[in-house]
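F.,

This is the one I mentioned.
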């Protein structure tokens, strides 16, 4: 075939594709289902197996199976108990036997996020064991890996509407828990996909003078002031002071308060991953684990988390699904895409922790967290139908919440 004929064939093929897409947009016959249904559950904190004869798996499974993507956050490591514990933990050291994972998968989950404050409770061995067990069970996962590339890359799930990418990220972690990039000189560091953030406190000139006096008499800033003088730490911007590792900005209008913002490097990495995934996938979901709060209660997501969630939607994500604080938080529809700031608990099964936690304190926490599967049978479940952001425009958008009896709680479109 001559060059001109080959060019003409390519042009005709391209025209045929464009015409087919035009027919789909105008209501012609579609080649596949364009609606994706996702069942999103809250945190799964398991440390012991379900009781023999437990009867409530089936109705919960039937509810979750309404979604082709069935996702939750696995907030424990999976190991045989032989891994060395890290010097730090996500609050306490959590690990569970592989049989506990089998119990969890009976509910029908096909994706588990593993980026949370307990990811590195048992160091690199614990993470490797967790990933190994997930692979054995053929469960898609994201959020951690043997380097930052693996930790931040999305999991890809097949549905009748095409491939779906899921990115998992965490903002609550010890600095040593975050994954590191591989370079020519050294291998990457195993860990979680981090979402760092910075905080800024705004105070009046009078309060700034008070802090400066306290810093002077206590020497709380001594070492960092010395390092700054020696050039090991960057100079402070004008109008900003440091106190005990926290940054304070002097208010120009007398207002005081706190704000936070996501780390631009971590935002860019996530946004780039979303855009890259959108090139081959029909939709992208972002799961985020965050314990941070705005001020003094768990009801509102922190400022940086809201900014990060908006950036994900702006980049093309179809939904942001949060967890971390073990309770339901607010829901936002941003550009017709749902942001669930926290879906609470799916299961909260623990062993006896009285050896290192006061009996009364743990009893209060257990009751406050509404953590048992029995209670969660009556908790709101999330089934999302969300925009695909394809060239044909948006599909139906709705967020439906109902308990297992089918009673509708809240809906939005």
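My design for it:
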């Amino acid at each position: 075939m001559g060059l001109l004929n080959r060019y003409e064939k390519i042009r005709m093929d391209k025209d045929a594709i464009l015409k087919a897409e035009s027919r789909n947009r105008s209501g012609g016959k579609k080649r596949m289902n364009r609606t994706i249904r996702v069942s999103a559950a809250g945190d799964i904190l398991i440390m012991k197996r379900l009781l023999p004869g437990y009867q409530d798996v089936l109705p919960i499974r039937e509810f979750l199976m309404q979604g082709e993507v069935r996702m939750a956050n696995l907030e424990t490591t999976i190991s045989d108990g032989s891994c060395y514990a890290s010097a730090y933990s996500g609050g306490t050291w959590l690990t569970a036997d592989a049989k506990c994972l089998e119990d969890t998968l009976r509910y029908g989950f096909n994706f588990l996020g593993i980026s949370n404050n307990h990811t590195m409770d048992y160091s690199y061995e614990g993470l490797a064991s967790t990933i190994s067990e997930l692979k054995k069970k053929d469960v898609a996962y994201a959020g951690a890996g043997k380097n930052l590339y693996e930790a931040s890359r999305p999991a890809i799930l097949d549905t009748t509407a095409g491939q779906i990418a899921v990115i998992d990220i965490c903002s609550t972690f010890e600095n040593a828990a975050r994954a590191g990039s591989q370079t020519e000189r050294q291998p990457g560091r195993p860990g979680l996909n981090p979402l760092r953030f910075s905080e800024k406190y705004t105070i009046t000139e009078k309060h700034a003078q008070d802090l400066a006096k306290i810093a002077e008499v206590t020497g709380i800033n001594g070492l960092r002031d010395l390092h700054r003088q020696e050039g090991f730490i960057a100079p402070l911007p004008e109008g900003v002071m440091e106190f005990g590792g926290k940054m304070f900005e002097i208010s120009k209008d007398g207002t005081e308060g706190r704000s936070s913002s996501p780390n631009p490097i971590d935002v860019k990495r996530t946004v780039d991953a979303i855009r890259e995934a959108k090139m081959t996938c029909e939709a992208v979901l972002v799961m985020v684990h965050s314990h941070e709060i705005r001020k003094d209660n768990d009801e509102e997501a922190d400022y940086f988390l809201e900014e990060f969630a908006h950036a994900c939607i702006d980049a093309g994500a179809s939904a942001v699904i949060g967890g971390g604080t073990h309770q339901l938080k607010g829901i936002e529809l941003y550009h017709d895409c749902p942001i669930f700031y926290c879906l609470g608990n799916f299961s909260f099964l623990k062993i006896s922790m009285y050896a290192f936690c006061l009996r009364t304190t743990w009893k209060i926490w257990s009751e406050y967290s509404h953590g048992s599967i029995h209670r969660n049978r009556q908790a709101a479940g999330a089934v999302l139908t969300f925009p695909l952001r394809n060239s044909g425009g948006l599909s139906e958008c709705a967020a439906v919440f109902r308990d297992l009896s089918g009673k509708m709680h809240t809906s939005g479109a």
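The two ends are 53 Å apart (CA to CA).

Talk soon.
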